[in-house]
Each structure stands twice: as structure tokens, then as C-alpha cells.
């Protein structure tokens, strides 16, 4: 249930609020894939989340047109979920 809540918050925080990212999500398959991978992080074993996130972040850096928007989303995930005590992967 927590994983679904995290995915929903991620969607509401960025995809719905950032029109550029929303358009990229709908029109660019690579952006869509990276975002879906981020949504799936909470479903991984806690020991794998950080390593998988770092791979996703590297994929986001290679995006051409929308790298800035997707990297902002990655920064949000890192700061608010991976590095904060509230949503850290080891809870």
C-alpha cells in the first residue's frame, strides 16, 4: 500500500504539475520508460532500490530533449525518498 501511495505522490508532484514533463511522458517513449521505472522503485527489495535508482538516473542523463525535466524528477526522488528519513529504502 505504501508503494502505491509513493507512486501516486510522484505522479501528482511532477507529471501532473509540470506540463513539460507531462508532454514528454506522453510523447517520448524513453521518458515514459524512465518515469515508469521510477514509479516501480517502491516494489523492489529495499537492498536493490539505491542501485537501481542510480541506473535509472544514468538513463535519464542520456535523454536528449527532456533530460532536464526527468533529472528534476530524479532529484526529487533522491532528496525526498532515498535520502530522507521519512521514505528511506531501509524502512
Question: Can you walk me through this structure?
Answer:
The chain is mainly α and 91 residues long. The chain has one domain. It contains 5 helices and no strands. The chain has helices spanning 2-15, 19-27, 29-40, 46-61, 67-82. Helix 3 runs parallel beside helix 5 (67-82). The mean pLDDT is 80.
Can you tell me the overall shape?
Answer: globular
What's the gyration radius in Å? Answer: 12 Å
Regions with little confidence, pLDDT below 50 for 5+ residues = none
Strand content: under 5%
Tally the helices: 5
Q: pLDDT average, as an integer? A: 80
What key phrases describe this protein's structure?
91 residues, globular, 5 helices, mainly alpha
Topology (SSEs and partners):
Blueprint: H1 2-15, H2 19-27, H3 29-40, H4 46-61, H5 67-82
Q: Gist?
A:
By secondary structure, the chain is mainly α.
Amino acid at each position: 500500500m505504501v508503494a502505491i501511495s509513493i507512486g501516486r505522490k510522484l505522479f501528482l508532484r511532477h507529471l501532473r504539475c509540470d506540463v513539460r514533463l507531462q508532454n514528454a511522458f506522453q510523447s517520448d517513449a524513453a521518458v515514459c520508460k524512465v518515469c515508469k521505472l521510477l514509479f516501480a522503485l517502491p516494489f523492489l527489495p529495499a537492498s536493490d532500490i539505491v542501485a537501481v535508482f542510480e541506473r535509472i538516473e544514468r538513463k535519464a542523463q542520456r535523454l536528449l530533449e527532456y533530460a532536464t525535466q526527468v533529472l528534476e524528477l530524479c532529484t526529487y526522488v533522491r532528496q525526498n525518498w532515498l535520502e530522507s528519513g521519512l521514505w528511506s529504502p531501509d524502512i
